[in-house]
Amino acid sequence: MILIQKSALQKMRANYQPQLPESLKGKVKVVEGEATESVEDQEAIKKLFPNTYGMPELRFEKADDACCCEKSCEPFNVGVILSGGQAPGGHNVISGLFDGLKAINKENRLYGFLMGPGGLVDHNYKELTADIVDEYRNTGGFDMIGSGRTKLETPEQFEKGLEIIKQLNLRAIVIIGGDDSNTNAAVLAEYYKAKNVPVQVLGCPKTIDGDLKNKWIEASFGFDTCTKIYSEVIGNIERDCNSAKKYWHFIKLMGRSASHIALECALETQPSYCIISEEVEAKNLTLRDVVNDIARVVADRSSRGMDFGTVLVPEGLIEFFPSIKALIEELNDLLAETPDFAKMHPDDQRAFVISHLSEKNATIFEMLPEGVARQLTLDRDPHGNVQVSLIETEKLLSEMVKKRLDEMKEEGKFNGKFRRMHHFFGYEGRCGIPSNFDANYCYSLGYNAAQLVNCGATGYMSSIRNLTKPASEWIAGGIPITMMMNMEQRKGKQKPVIKKALVDLNGNPFKAFAQMREIWAKETCFNYPGPIQYFGPSEMTDQTTLTLYYEHEE
Questions:
Q1: Residues forming the active site
Q2: At 330, which CATH number?
Q3: Other CB atoms closer than 10 Å to residue 358's CB: what's the count?
Q4: Does residue 214 share a domain with residue 346?
Q5: 80 assigned to some structural domain
Q6: Degrees to nearest 5, angle at CA 550 with 547 and 551
Q7: Contact status, residue 182 vs residue 481, Cβ threshold 8 Å
Q8: Cys-Cys link to 262, which of 2, 314, 437, 463 (CB 3.0-4.6 A)?
């Protein structure tokens, strides 16, 4: 028998009691808002979701003597699914859901489908008892039930899921995931509602990328923890950088479609240079434009005796250069129509792509370094997206900056040294022990989802708002998933998806960054946030991300 020794931190975190909004303590009542509509493409979304479109926003308030609805408080069963990549706090969502169900009726039961949505289709599950849930409270990772990226999109899958739903007598399924996973939840809710099947489908907003947010979803869980983890390590690198004074560190950060992580880490650590993908796209910058600007900063610092610095690079940057974005969009359609592409020899793949692309995009493809060009043709993820984590953008940039600096040397504009190091911070942050904020937020999302089940809601996402206030003042409720949707091109077809929240260039977080970045570039202003604080004064343990702070700044 192997004994697993727990660290002191694990033991102490197990005893942490997450805080809840006051409105979720005790009995609650539901207050309905106005009817809603999708953020874009209203007619198209309404046509695709006739049974779950236009539902009202829901808000929970304390009730003295009644449940949140007229439904019977007879015991019921619920299933839960973790979908997509890991994010700190997933176990707390399940813990909150479990406790919320037991508070409604101690006979309620929770079943976890194993390894993601595929567990529902394959009937792979286990009942989550108190002994199991207690083992994972306030811990990182998704290992309680595992996760997966199976996309729920076919009637055959829905029917297979319905078999186990009926067998376990489930009243609801709660899908914990990002924008694509919650889109799947909306599709599943619509399918079962159309068939008049008495099962609810609900979602919880998870993604460390931070791109699942809006007026009603102020933050996706895990973003707070992972940006604190990345900022600690970036700060460590900056301290080393300022000590050795001889390296430029190119640091790629997770964020497939948005630069929220890069922006937050920049606000926390004050690097020499940080690229914001959304600004690149808005200003129609080319790859050469960005390279020239980094080279300018390197040369300027070198002229003042500073041959060192840090450059933060968003993971999805490559897709935001307009010319390369157009190339990727055409590649997506081409590869979607060529199922045997992966079986071709690499040389044949390159020739095939060049011969089938438009002249403009073929020229761009040929100009890219062969390794990067090949990385753009690798297998897509289950949702049809380029796997940008496999594209070594940080190395591409540093190599091009070196070439530009070599040119500047010949022009007499650079006489310093340019030594490079490369880093990619991704998996290091996905499964961290959740911060106090994420522990509280995730637990509240799960507890809130239990109330949404009890109220009979389907096609809703669990929503906790007012997040810059103490947890007791948070606002709990639910919003229809359809109201966050628009139509986008996926695998060559128009599909309904939750609209991604990109960095707002007119928002306070970006404005704060833009105001300071030239100072950070000229001077060494590195900031060293240190590790996540779980214990100590509130100003250290309970601080939100700077992004959230600036967004709510009056």
A1: 209
A2: 1.10.10.480
A3: 11
A4: no
A5: no
A6: 80
A7: yes
A8: 314
